Each structure stands twice: as structure tokens, then as C-alpha cells.
Amino acid sequence: MIDPRASSGEKLTPPHPLPYVSRKALKRVTDWIEPPEQCPNCGSPVELVNNSEIYGREYGGWPYAYRCFDHRGCDSYVGLHPNTDLPLGTLADSFERQARKDNKRHFMTWQELNGWSRKQIYTWLAQRMGIPVSQCHWGLFGVEQANLAGAICEEAIEKMMEASP
Ligand SMILES: [Zn+2]
Fold first, then answer.
1. Å from CA of 135 to ligand 1 middle
2. Which residue, of 2, 44, 91, 161, has the greatest Cβ tally within 10 A?
3. Nearest CA-CA partner of 84 in 134, 12, 147, 10
4. Is the dihedral angle over the CA atoms 25, 54, 149, 131 positive or is it negative?
5. Secondary structure of residue 65 in the 3-state scheme
6. How far is the CA of 42 from the centre of ligand 1 (A)?
7. Which residues surround ligand 1, an ion (CB under 5 A)?
8. Measured in angstroms, how far is the CA atom of residue 32 from the centroid of ligand 1?
9. Residue 66: φ, ψ to 5°
10. What is the pLDDT of residue 67?
11. CA triplet 36, 37, 39: central angle to 5 degrees?
């Protein structure tokens, strides 16, 4: 699914503090998730911030994030697709961020070993996890799903290694 604004004629007004929102960039985001208003982990409002407020300095080429208002307690946040106001996934707390990061390594390795496209590996993984492809995405995984996805990929890698001389 693609953001409906990608093909509309309306003027794109960037939400503060974004300098702009690119229609071309919106079109590239095929796994559209609506900008969040409420934190999925605690229900607090969500604010759009420069990520220097999180990391202490600006980080990356599009240094913005959606952040839970309760940043001392809940501490959930998520980055944005470059040149858009679209989140890369759901807001994640420190445990979810760590689980996504740790397990995604195996996924990337497995993708590389097979020479698969993004679509191919997500189709493969969704089937093994028993979930729809539309919900198979690192940006959507909670801790348990991230751990499961990582374990599935890790096991597949090990089997491949055992099979090759
Ligand atoms: Zn929260």
C-alpha cells in the first residue's frame, strides 16, 4: 500500500520540524504505515522530533523520529523514511529496538546468501512465521516476533552451512 498523497494533487505541507515532504519519496514507500498519533506501548501522544533530541546529535541524512511523549519512562521511538513524514515502523521501546536490531542481522545474511529481493525474503519469512506478508516487516515486529524471525533465519543459515561441504 502506498500513501494516497503520493498521487494526489494537493500541496504537501511538511509537519514541523521537517523541511519538506517529497512526493517522489512517498511513492517509494511501498510498506506505508500512517504517521502515529499515539504510542502503541503506553498510549501517550507522539511527537515528531529532530533525532538529536534522542541521540544528543543529529544522526543520518534525514534526522527525524516519532517519539513517545513519555520519553523518560516508555522511551519508544521510530525513525522516518527519508524525505517523508512516514514512520519506518511502529514505535518501539528499548527492548523491541534491540530485538529488531539483533535478529535482523540473520535475516540480512540469509537474504544475501540466497541473492533474494526484499519481496522474496519477506514472502519466504511470512510463510514460515505463519503471518500475512503485509504484516511481515521488521518495523512491525515486537520482541517475540523479532526473536522468532531471527531464529527461523538463523536455523536456515545453519542448515545451508551444514549442507555445503
Ligand atoms: Zn510510549
1. 21
2. 91
3. 12
4. negative
5. strand
6. 4
7. 39, 41-42, 44, 68, 74, 76
8. 21
9. -90, 130
10. 98
11. 80
For the four alpha carbons of 123, 127, 132 and 136, in that order, the dihedral sign comes to negative
The rounded Å distance from CA 73 to ligand 1 centre is: 8
CA of 8 to the centre of ligand 1 (A): 32
CA distance 150 to 80: 23
pLDDT tens figures, 65-108: 999 999 899 999 999 999 999 999 999 999 999 999 999 999 99
Cell numbers 533474494 label which residue? Answer: 116
- Enter the C-alpha cell of residue 114: 540466497
Helices assigned H by DSSP within 6-117: 23-28, 52-55, 94-114
